[in-house]
Amino acid sequence: MAEQKATNITWHEGDVTREERQANLGQKGVTVWMTGLSASGKSTIAVALEKVLLARGKHAYRLDGDNIRFGLNKNLGFSAEDRAENIRRIGEVAKLFGDAGMITITSFISPYRRDRDLVRKLHEDARLPFLEVYVDCAIEEAEKRDPKGLYKKARAGELKGFTGVDDPYEAPERPELVLRSDRLTVAESVAELLATLESRGLLGA
Ligand code: ADP
Fold this sequence. Notes:
Elements: H1 18-25, E1 30-35, H2 42-55, E2 60-64, H3 65-70, H4 80-100, E3 103-107, H5 113-125, E4 130-136, H6 139-145, H7 150-155, E5 177-180, H8 186-199
Parallel strand pairs: 1-3, 1-4, 2-3, 4-5
Helix pairs in contact: 2-8, 4-5
The structure holds adenosine-5'-diphosphate (ADP).
Adenosine-5'-diphosphate binds next to helix 2.
């Protein structure tokens, strides 16, 4: 966990409650946290889900692994320590978005259970729903897809610390949803995600 550096700081309450913000927006904030191997389909499914949600008049926003590394997390690499900080920051951003009433869809490999559990705890402490979605794809299939050529580079030894090749992926133990993305179509995965959100009352007003 990151150390609290600043002292002399006090939480300043606003005059608008989360419930009032939700009523204004007509929806509840939730984080849909997708985790899985590179090329398992996290970004592809997130893009498709965002589109369907917007077509339904919902406010949704994607936080995507590579995209965030171009900006907020441009100073972080892929060491275990940097991966942990990457996930911690995204967790905090997702929590803020959730408090603001957004359906936030994250697509990060987030390979370490401990880091994901910390994000879950952040949400629990903030009384915000957190859905851990394991995008489960056999590595052979992910490697066959390899849309960015990263497995090829990792196998050739040109890329070190690549998840699934020479860095571990720790699968979730109790995810809210498992998507077998090597068996389901993208549309089927999106349908499962919508059903999960619906069954938890997260798509209503
Ligand atoms: P990740 O975000 O997990 O790294 P991407 O979404 O970037 O994965 O890449 C997954 C690749 O696999 C894309 O090129 C996508 O079109 C392809 N793909 C093929 N079949 C599927 C499927 N059923 N679900 C998700 N992605 C699929």
